[in-house]
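sry for the spam today, last one i promise. struct tokens for design, 270 residues
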């Protein structure tokens, strides 16, 4: 099988394989595309928590991005954990230099276990600089609350927060509604022209480690294959929901989802 497209992933490593660059590569590969990577940090973690984080120097992150793109130009880029202002600056410079347009940002800030993954200056720089330079940002509710400084308790609050991110310079915003207490999932896509609500059944499962990484990578993959923004978000959400529904049940904490589920349901994703 020949890959449909090429996706560059810029993110941290998760030694447990459930999130981070490992989840990203699994997602891109299972959806039929070719994955490249630039690792921003190495973490020692499992389903119960994070033991350590070792950051990669900004220069080496830039080298990974530029040297990979020099040889194989990606159709889209997915960005995950960027742990410092200096790393964010390096990533912005590299992506501008290589003129990449389809960039999806998952603003990873806190691990599922509650461990903080980036510092305050990095959060500030994401708001001031990074979101203006990407195509789509995909925060969950806690991340959206950090970026907008408002409390979110409803879909209406999600829309309000999304509009704040648009005013900060975001082109497109997909706020993930999994943290709201409801039987139905509401993921909301916004830009200056549209508000689109994706409604789906919420699956009660403790095995949701890496869902944010997976969704952003799935959307980036569909964008890389030429699908439009709304369709890419719709298909990405379906992929994640099916992967959660599969319920792998690995580990003693928040377990991973089943990325291989796409091989069973790929006929639906057209």
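last one done:
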């Amino acid at each position: 099988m020949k890959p449909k497209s090429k996706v560059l992933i810029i993110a941290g490593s998760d030694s447990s394989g459930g999130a981070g660059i490992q989840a990203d590569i699994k997602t891109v590969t299972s959806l039929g595309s070719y994955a490249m990577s630039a690792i921003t940090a190495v973490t020692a973690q499992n389903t119960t928590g994070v033991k350590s984080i070792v950051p990669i120097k900004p220069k080496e992150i830039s080298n990974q991005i530029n040297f990979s793109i020099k040889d194989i130009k990606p159709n889209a880029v997915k960005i995950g954990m960027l742990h410092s202002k200096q790393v964010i600056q390096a990533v912005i410079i590299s992506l501008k230099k290589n003129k990449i347009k389809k960039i999806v940002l998952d603003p990873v800030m806190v691990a599922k276990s509650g461990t903080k993954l980036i510092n305050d200056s990095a959060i500030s720089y994401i708001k001031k600089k990074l979101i203006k330079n990407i195509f789509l940002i995909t925060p969950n509710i806690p991340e959206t609350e950090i970026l907008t400084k408002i409390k979110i308790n409803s879909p209406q609050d999600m829309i309000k927060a999304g509009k704040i991110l648009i005013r900060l310079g975001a082109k497109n915003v997909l706020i993930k509604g999994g943290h709201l207490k409801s039987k139905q999932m509401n993921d909301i896509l916004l830009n200056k022209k549209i508000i689109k609500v994706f409604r789906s059944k919420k699956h009660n499962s403790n095995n949701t480690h890496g869902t944010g990484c997976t969704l952003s990578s799935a959307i980036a993959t569909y964008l890389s294959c030429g699908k439009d923004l709304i369709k890419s978000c719709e298909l990405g959400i379906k992929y994640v929901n099916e992967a959660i529904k599969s319920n792998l049940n690995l580990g003693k904490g928040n377990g991973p989802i089943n990325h291989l589920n796409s091989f069973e349901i790929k006929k639906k994703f057209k």
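The radius of gyration is 17 Å. ok im logging off now
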